[in-house]
Amino acid sequence: MGTTQLEAVPEPKYWHLKTVLGRALDSDFAVGEVLPNERELAARFGVARATLRQALEQLELEGRLQRRRGVGTTVAPPRVGVDVSTTQHEWPGAAQDAWQPIDSTTAPAPAGVARLLETEAEEAVHTVRRIRMTHGQSVAAELLYVPSSSVPELSAIDAPSGPARARGILRELQRLGLDGQDRAVELGSARADDAKELDRLPGAPVLVVTTRYIVAGRTAAVSVATYRADTCRLTFGDSGDLEISDQQPQARRAS
Known about the structure:
The chain is of the alpha+beta class. Helices cover about 25% and strands about 30% of the residues. It is built from 7 helices and 10 strands. The protein has helices spanning about 5-10, 15-30, 40-45, 50-60, 110-115, 160-175, 190-200, and strands at about 65-70, 70-75, 80-85, 100-110, 125-135, 135-145, 180-190, 205-215, 220-230, 230-235. The strands form 3 sheets. It has a 6-stranded antiparallel sheet with strand order 4-5-6-9-8-7. A two-stranded antiparallel sheet has the order 1-2. A two-stranded parallel sheet has the order 3-10. Helix 2 (about 15-30) packs across helix 4 and helix 3 (about 40-45) packs across helix 4.
């Protein structure tokens, strides 16, 4: 069989540098250690800074590096397994829910969410913002969109906004009989508000999990959860202990 066009393409320089840098992270740096600045690293490896940036961005995407506000680029710890399986989650706000409500507002949903909810473009819906904590750190930020028709008994007098309002909306959702959920995961970039809550820089790689909650054949609520791609390993089964050893080399030294 002849060589295909794809096989003839040489490995990009930044990709080779990413491999070399990955080995250096295992042997020369500890978890949490701050890397030298770009000028020093580019000189050390004899590459242009543009090539170096591409390699660093790829290592960040793979969860090997973290960019931290006011600190710089650090060596990332192994990813934390975060369960997102439908078997482990009922309505948002259920007893085993790991999310913390922090705010609630009322405004039209984004166009894509409005289509899922089958609401009019200008129709205001309840938007609950929540944070998910794991081992004391924020690993995800969520926007939960709930149309008024899903929580008709919600009082407009008590707690018009804030965490108390958010908890009221979550309590009302518990009254509905949840028929099922469907869920999609995609790679994205952190928006400014999510980046601030997750202590990331805007544009940092994130995993976006969109969940549609179904009641009586219609969408009763939509969750858009943004997970830190550098620290999270999403799990979908009954157990989160699946490990792929070559993704997190054991040679990396502990801090």
